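Notebook entry, structure prediction.
Reason for the run: the old model in the group folder had no record of what sequence produced it. Starting over properly, with the input documented here first.
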Amino acid sequence: MDTSGLESFAQDLRTKLLGGVKQRLRYWGFEEDGSIEEAPEEIEGGYIFRGEVHGDPGVPKKWRALKNAVNQHDVDHVAEEAAYTWFNRLVALRILEKNGYVPDTLGYAEDTTQPAVLYRARQGVIDVLDGEGEQDVREALLESDDDRAFRQLLIGVCHDNDLLSDVFGRINDYTELLLPTGLLQPEGAVERLVTTGVISDEDFEQVELIGWLYQFYISEKKDVVYDQSGKFQPEDIPAATQIFTPRWIVRYMVENTIGKQWLEKYPDSPLREEMEYLVENEDDDSDSTEPIFDDLSELELFDPAAGSGHILVVGFDLLMQMYRERGFTDREAVKQILTENLKGLEIDRRAAQLARFALLMKAAQYDRQALDRDDLRPEVYAMPEPRDFSTSDLRAYFGDDVSDVHSTKIKEALDLIKEHGQNVGSALKLDLSDDARTAVTQRVADWEKKTRNGTVRLDEQELHTELRGYLRPLLLLTGNYPAVATNPPYASSRNINKPLKNYLKEHYPQTKKDLFATFMEVLPDHTRQRGRFAFITPPSWMFLSSYEDLRVHYIENYFFDSLLQLSRGIFGADFGSVATAVQKAKHRGRTGRYFRLVERTFQEFHARHLHELFRRVIQNPEFRYDFSEYEKDGSIPNVSNPEGKRLHYPGVDQQDFEKIPGATIAYWVTQSMIDAFHSEALLGEVAEVKHGMTTGNNKRFLRTWYELYVDSIG
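New structure, fully documented this time:
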């Protein structure tokens, strides 16, 4: 997918929607500082606002909810949330209709420039509203107020579509009041979305599209967050840490976790030839590679920082091939994959919604009816909004038998999620016994069944909905999985807020310097013994002294199956990255394969060229490359350069890393150098090592060339 034009498109759409939402906030009487200039007056059957009588009795309640949201946060926060709410629904609707999953809605009716839903209403067909809503649309059309009619129809479509409601939540709150006017104007949001040339028909078929749009949508806020002084607050963390992972890196992580585990059970599977990013070792037939699952439904892949679901989507495709090989129909496989195999947790509610949507779009590629089945919803959840649950709430939900035994521990866990969930995310440590976890799982399943059967009261339904938002993350964070893969959040301790910093200091003292390193502890904690986990991070953990304890722990307790050290460019102007596949088992004499796709620390590659370079060396392990010849406008040669740098380092014994001072992951070091470190005296043992001569203050005493007169330079 060509993403070159998506950034400006997403940001332009954000600007239009955000401006429209702020205009609606002003209309509803809210000043920029949150003060109220005008409020609706409730009357029988409606309300009075700005001197006019209106007939919608539900508006005053929605307005009060809007007021509470502004008081709890601020106007800017509420505007951002509402703008994004309408962004994701408009984009999701467009994707659904372009793929033929819903009738044309936003797309123009034939030979017109009218959205199809508005055109049908003009023909008398209003099938997404009834009662007062339908009458309001008819009155608006009689008054030639297309804008009002379309907004009512759009709200009706969102209410009427169970998929949108299940994935993104229902909008029967103040969000409806903030739906912008002017959507149908020339160059307005609808025209931009429907007529854009940036997104091709083929792009609309790619489930990753909505994830890319989200990353670009929040990129402006990300810039603001990094530019501002102070620490990332909980609401800033999603924008500051969301990075969309290139597909080939995702395939590397997925194929070297669940892909390897599949081949451990079925070594003759033809899937081996289709996994282009699988890195196999000579030791892959050792005792540590015994099959970890019996039934395919047990081969779970968990992403604890799921983002918009890219890793899980790629996992879906590979699992589908496995199920087909075992004789399942696509429909049977879709149900198993969504309900059994794929799990995800995300700190950002909006990203989690997109992950669920992306997985459903992927499921629909194999079974179009998957979108219509309300029992098929992805197991991807977000950390919930803070909320208190009383002991009586828990007893009403779990019953006396469970509450008498487990309520204390369950309550403690829920309180921790309330206090830290939206700040700490999946790094949150929770303690729940196996018996308690089994009891919670069974009760949640019972309530889900009763809800689908319509046998719960309204108050019970509300309690179940609220508690489910806590219990699903609780179950995910107290589980262990055969495979875990993620692109974790990156945030230095210098940038995070004090409560998060204190939590990491207490619970992750070895890795408190950066969230990505913290997740290097989180991943094996959620991986079963002999399971596999994979991640992509900055390379600093391989070398810096502050991560020495982490490196030693990995070397002594886990097996580095393979590692890709990459030059700058995977995520744009980054500082390099490293993708790693690890088994949660001691190495027991096994050796790993390492790839050094970097020469100079600050040499930046185009992401596609790093992909090409890896493909070359996977196909030809003897491939060599001269980094000095690299040009961003060029390509990676097909033929190895004998004078180039070595890229592939097989048969590396990770025990040798501990022979090097600091236990650095220096996989390219020769055996003679390692032996020298191990057997010869170190310089510090012979003489006192000190820093050489220094100015003491370079900024004060040194001058750069442009600060000097030309005739003063020798």
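Summary: The mean pLDDT is 90.
The old model has been moved to the deprecated folder.
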